[in-house]
Amino acid sequence: MALSFLSPSLSRLGLWASVVILMVTVLKLFSLLFQRQKLARALDSFPGPPTHWLFGHALEIQKTGGLDKVVTWTEQFPYAHPLWLGQFVVFLNIYEPDYAKAVYSRGDPKAAYVYDFFLQWIGKGLLVLEGPKWFQHRKLLTPGFHYDVLKPYVAIFAESTRVMLDKWEKKASENKSFDIFCDVGHMALDTLMKCTFGKGDSGLGHSDNSYYLAVSDLTLLMQQRIDSFQYHNDFIYWLTPHGRRFLRACQIAHDHTDHVIRQRKAALQDEKEQKKLQERRHLDFLDILLGARDESGIKLSDADLRAEVDTFMFEGHDTTTSGISWFLYCMALYPMHQQRCREEAREILGDRDSFQWDDLAKMTYLTMCIKECFRLYPPVPQVYRQLSKPVTFVDGRSLPAGL
Length: 403
Fold this sequence. Notes:
CATH 1.10.630.10, 2 domains, two-stranded antiparallel ribbon, two-stranded antiparallel sheet, 19 helices, membrane, heme binding
């Protein structure tokens, strides 16, 4: 009797629930279509390549390689062109210096659609922060990049590089070509481990080796996610093998950083350890972060400490590896400039076998070659911003706020 009485009520409830869900879906769809029309109107004056009805430009980018495809489009469409990821997310890809100046001289916030992908790993460090919080962290970290702090690092750079060159000498003796990218990446990560945590190859335990692998894995997975339109949705991404692998690597990286921070904090409570720290030849990045205070004596929280360390490891490892690898590629392409760089280095070194801090300012020709290589092959080829107010470019075309 009770069940027969409840059945009509349950049926009506299910019907109303279906109606509500349908209405919400329709409203959301109309909202997306309105937003799509608004974005398309804003970009009317910027012609671009044809789009797929569902994927926009994402499918073609995945097929042909993101950066290569975008470079070919820059030759077809001067100054800027729209880049659609699906039908509801669009960026204006700008590559003309005056266009870039119009945007990057204003201090617009970073585009959350892209930079939120980084939060799971590096947290809210300098890369993703903005506004007062960014200025606070920047001010606290600036002393860590003073000349007096950086000078002792030159010996660390030289030591890690020497290990890499010894590897290459053995590989070269086999008279076979080999890929240098992984070796450069290991050298950059080894250097960062020493400069950030005070560790290196000679003192690595199982946890440190796992951290090495996790950072390398996270860097690759992050780039794969940005390039893959279907991975942009968090819910979908965390269900994929790539997403689960990313979360596992994140956990390894976070556990390692947290462990090192706890150890260092505990050590600083001991007078003997404090004396050892003062007698060390150089402070590592973690020492500087733990000692950072603002005018009110406020220091970084544990979450902020981990975010800045993880940010430093990501940005320092990935960009350094890319920059050095492309520079060596350019030197191989242009033997004449390579020879001039070699002669300059030999003249500066003399009878010594390693560079010192004061030598760096004397490397004028090498510095020019490095800067030109960065212009041709920038380690960070794309930076994303969301306009907080309208912008008008040098040729009269404009964009509204919010794009």
